[in-house]
Design a protein that fits this description.
The complex is a heterodimer. Chain A is an alpha/beta fold. Helix content of chain A is 35%, strand content 20%. In chain A, the strands form three sheets. Chain A has a seven-stranded mixed beta sheet with strand order 3-2-4-5-7-6-12, sandwiched between helices. Chain A has a five-stranded mixed beta sheet with strand order 9-11-10-13-14, sandwiched between helices. Chain A has a two-stranded antiparallel sheet with strand order 1-8. Chain A starts with a strand and ends with a helix. By secondary structure, chain B is of the alpha/beta class. Chain B has 13 helices and seven strands. In chain B, strand 6, helix 9 and strand 7 form a beta-alpha-beta unit. Chain B is globular, with a radius of gyration of 19 Å. Classes of the chains: A alpha/beta, B alpha/beta. Chains A and B meet through helix 3, helix 4 and helix 5 of A and helix 5 and helix 6 of B. Bound molecules: thiamine diphosphate (TPP). The site of thiamine diphosphate has 15 residues of chain B, from strand 4.
């Protein structure tokens, strides 16, 4: 199969198409996923291809997530779309008290294979209720997996892995990645395993760990860093839970320095977890400051100018890297 | 309707719940519990009118529903005792008690949490073209949750094969329904979703059975969702420690006059003698006691069982074609 230029949005579309097309026991639920094609245009014409299994729901995030739980307990794999990640708050009871617990609390009698897809992230001036990346909210919930790929091939492959996983998976799609186009080989049905990080660029001076749109920002920073003579290694976690800490440890053991980049809050964030596990496992190799780059501890303002001060940027990543090297 | 079978089921529920109550008073059970003493007629009447393959989604007050569905009371005791032999290996306990082999999709610790799950099971039935139905029990208190309105709406627009059964026992913990609702009847709310409803005497197992039978058949034939509101009363407190200060002893005494069990005995006396009824009572009481003794002699979970199983593995083969 030859590589072709394809967008992140199209990759998710193709993965959805593959999942719905290859198994009649797969259902896709969400708001405005029919004629509107999904708020971000991901589901496009799927409702025509699978008219009974692509189901546009009322604006009832709490309950259509519960419907997904009921479907999954009775033999279906379910994909849901939560229009903006911020609206996850309305689905939290069904995700946290039901979906996440089902396999364990029912003694392994049953599993809950659902994927909750959700467009996330800021930089678009949408303000506090339409801009958040909230991966960290789910980190303390046993039973849930969290996946947030940054590349087109991973969007396709990780999505299919999420669909065929037997657990609830929160699948985070950054809005600014939808239009990302890459040469990609989307082999029909090929899965990218969850819990395996990807080393995007090797380097010896510092390890940058990120996921989702943070990887795109870090990639931009790499060129500037190189110009300053800094050879950074960039790791894309791809999935936050399960977390491939081994790849990070291996890298930090070599570079001795760690910078984490995320769009969510630093306090209680992904970087906090990664940094702590690094300290627990390879403190002896660390010879620089550990730096976390992420959102400031404030809501996300609507003003595009103000938003830039709050969210991570190429500049704050470069600054973070320099800080880690300056110790 | 086999009145003798119904009576035996109702009696099993009553004795089971009384035993649980006794165990709590002796400090022999952990956590909490919500007993359905007084409400047995809704459990046996509704479930008795269903097929084995119909799905049931229950509530925090769910022991009766589960026993009526045919569960093994030893394994329920084991679950309440946190034993390895319990239906959920002791991990779920009273409020998270699921029995997939009986199509019983769980009691539920979140008030209103089961409503959308039942709608999901009903959607599953519809998509698969099956002729079973989903039945969702809930209390009148739960009808103030968003999930009630959202789930009834979805059931209605998608014409789902689901029967909503509201066990209206007038109080949600201490809160009287008339204090938190403009109207006394939950059934009125179904009308705003175009869902037909009936209000019935929930203390009369025969009445509950006949209504459920008729309505369930209609749903089975594609008639869409319906709601039954069964007016009932819990004779006991809300949970293990409840001084019942929110209601009068007179009100309780009046409802006890409507106890569903003596009513069934009166019917039974047309076919068997009082002596035979006493024998049945003694034997069911003994079987409940025996079940407890077997359960309590079971094993506690080991450390590995406590720590494994948060995630299902890909290769896990689970029942119900779930995976
Ligand atoms: C979301 C949620 N809120 C509150 C509670 C605490 N609680 C447990 S049962 C109950 C009353 C429920 O009343 P109702 O639905 O009428 O059922 P009943 O107890 O009368 O059977 C309450 C408030 C809970 N378990 N879940």
């Amino acid at each position: 199969m030859r590589k072709e230029k394809i967008s992140y949005r199209k990759a998710i579309y193709k993965a959805l198409d593959y999942a719905l097309g290859s198994d009649e026991k797969t259902v896709f639920l969400g708001e405005d996923i029919s004629a509107y094609g999904g708020a971000f245009g991901v589901s496009a014409d799927l409702y025509k291809k699978y008219p009974t299994r692509v189901i546009s729901t009322p604006i009832s995030e709490g309950s259509f997530t519960g419907v997904a739980v009921g479907l999954s307990m009775t033999g279906y794999r379910v994909i849901t779309e939560i229009m903006f990640m911020d609206f996850m708050t309305l689905a939290m009871d069904q995700i946290i008290n039901h979906a996440a617990n089902i396999h364990y609390m029912y003694g392994g009698q049953i599993a809950c294979p659902i994927v909750v897809r959700t467009p996330a992230g800021g930089y678009r001036g949408y303000g506090p209720s339409h801009s958040k990346a909230m991966e960290n909210l789910f980190m303390s919930i046993p039973g849930v997996k969290i996946v947030a790929p940054s590349s087109v091939e991973d969007a396709y492959g990780c999505f299919l892995s999420a669909v065929y996983d037997n657990n609830p998976v929160i699948f985070v799609e950054h809005k600014l990645l939808y239009n990302l186009e890459e040469e990609a080989e989307l082999q029909s049905g090929k899965q990218v395993p969850l819990g395996k990080a990807r080393v995007i660029k090797e380097g010896g001076d510092v390890t940058i760990v990120s996921h989702s749109y943070g990887v795109a920002l870090a990639k931009e920073a790499l060129a500037d860093l190189e110009a300053d003579g800094i050879d950074a290694e960039l790791i894309d976690l791809r999935s936050i839970k399960p977390l491939d800490i081994e790849t990070v440890i291996e890298s930090v053991s070599k570079t001795g320095r760690l910078v984490t980049v995320e769009e969510g809050s630093i306090f209680g964030g992904v970087g906090a977890e990664v940094a702590c596990q690094v300290i627990e496992n390879c403190l002896q190799y660390i010879d620089g400051r550990i730096v976390r780059v992420g959102k400031a501890d404030v809501p996300i303002p609507a003003s595009l100018t103000a938003e830039r001060f709050v969210l991570p940027s190429k500049g704050s990543i470069i600054e973070g890297v320099k800080k880690s090297l300056s110790w | 309707m086999d009145i003798l079978e119904f009576y035996k089921k109702a009696l099993t529920i009553r004795f089971f719940e009384e035993k649980v109550d006794w165990l709590f008073s002796r400090g022999l059970l952990g956590g909490t519990t919500h007993l359905c003493i007084g409400q047995e007629a809704t459990a046996v009447g509704v479930v008795g009118a269903l097929r084995q393959d119909d799905y049931i989604v229950s509530t925090h007050r769910g022991h009766g529903h589960l026993i009526a569905k045919g569960a093994d009371i030893t394994k329920i005791f084991s679950e309440l005792l946190g034993k390895r032999e319990g239906y959920c290996k002791g991990r779920g306990g009273t409020q998270h008690l699921c029995v997939m082999e009986l199509n019983f999709l769980g009691t539920n610790g979140i008030t209103g949490g089961g409503l959308p799950i039942a709608a999901g099971a009903a959607l599953s039935i519809k998509l698969s073209g099956e002729d079973r139905i989903a039945v969702c029990f809930f209390g009148e208190g739960a009808s103030n949750q968003g999930t009630f309105h959202e789930s009834l709406n979805m059931a209605s627009i998608w014409n789902l094969p689901i029967l909503f059964v509201c066990e209206n026992n007038m109080y949600a913990m201490s809160t009287r329904f008339s204090d938190i609702s403009k109207f006394d009847d939950v059934a009125l709310r179904a009308a705003s979703f175009g869902i037909p409803s009936v209000i019935i005497d929930g203390m009369d197992a025969g009445r509950v059975f006949e209504n459920t039978k008729k309505i369930a058949e209609k749903i089975r034939q594609g008639g869409g969702p319906a709601l039954i509101e069964a007016k009932t009363y819990r004779f006991c407190g809300h949970s293990k420690s409840d001084a019942r200060l929110y209601r009068t002893r007179e009100e309780e005494a009046a409802w006890k006059q409507k106890d569903p069990l003596p009513k069934m005995e009166l019917k039974l006396l047309e076919v068997i003698s009082q002596g035979e009824i006493e024998v049945i009572k003694r034997s069911i009481k003994a079987s409940v006691d025996d079940a407890y003794e077997v359960a309590v002699a079971g094993e506690d979970p080991g450390v590995e069982e406590a720590l494994e199983g948060a995630y299902a593995q890909r290769e896990d083969l689970l029942p119900q074609g779930n995976i």
